[in-house]
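Data card: per-record layout.
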Amino acid sequence: MKHIWNFLKSLQLTFWLLLLITAMFITGSLYSRGDYGFFEAMNNTPILSWLTKTGIHNLHKTWWIMLLFLLMALLSVNTIACAADRLYSIWPKRKKISRRYFLTLLSPSIIHILFITVLCGHFLTFTVITHHRYPVEIGTQLTLPGNINLRINDIEMINYPSGSYLKDRLMNGKISLSQIMPSGEKHLFVKFLEPVTINGAYLHIDVAKRMTPKSSTTVCSRAEVKRTDQLMPQFYILYTEDPGLMFIVVFLFIMVGFLFWYYGNIFLLKKRGSE
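The structure for this 275-residue chain is written out next.
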């Protein structure tokens, strides 16, 4: 049992896990470049549902995802083991040193636990997220979950400057819409990376490169999207309920705060020691 514990808490295991996880991310980027549309569908459904319905039937493309989840789970166990081992070693010193110094020594373990908490938030997002994707044109009327009624008033393409090598290609987009309510209409604007919230859900926009008037393909870079006189890109409204997002943001800010506090105290302690 001791050998297993020593293996789980070892920094050597941490190094190899991080190395393998990096390799899986690189592998995934290569696979997604080859078939972006296939992997982009993961953004529209909980990951476990996608894996059971699609991923398991395409293991030649998705094997690295299963391995990545396994490696991340092992990294979580390794991180918890390292934090517990450090806590076990410094806890007996709590009455022999100042409280501030003890908390400084304890901070790396707290940061590790917060890191695991953020990973749990991501797992929550992956498994229970609600996501819908609606193709829209000017004048489209939508009924979203929760009986939210929308009307698309205008769609604006914001292109790169005419003097740029990317002229006539999409730099940003803006959708003007109205939320129709019994009390009246509420006018909203949605842009890339500037979502709006309605009843706790987020509305984003997405765009696909139009291939023919009736077909389009999702691309990784908006700079690939070009408007011509014959074809307008296909825009989408994305409806997302993500219970893990606030979980991630809150604990990530706490973790960053602890990092600043920890390194600030280390700096002060070293400065005092050199005086």
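Known properties of this structure: The radius of gyration is 24 Å. The beta strands are 130-136, 141-144, 148-159, 170-181, 184-191, 196-198, 201-212, 215-217, 234-241.

See the next section for split statistics.
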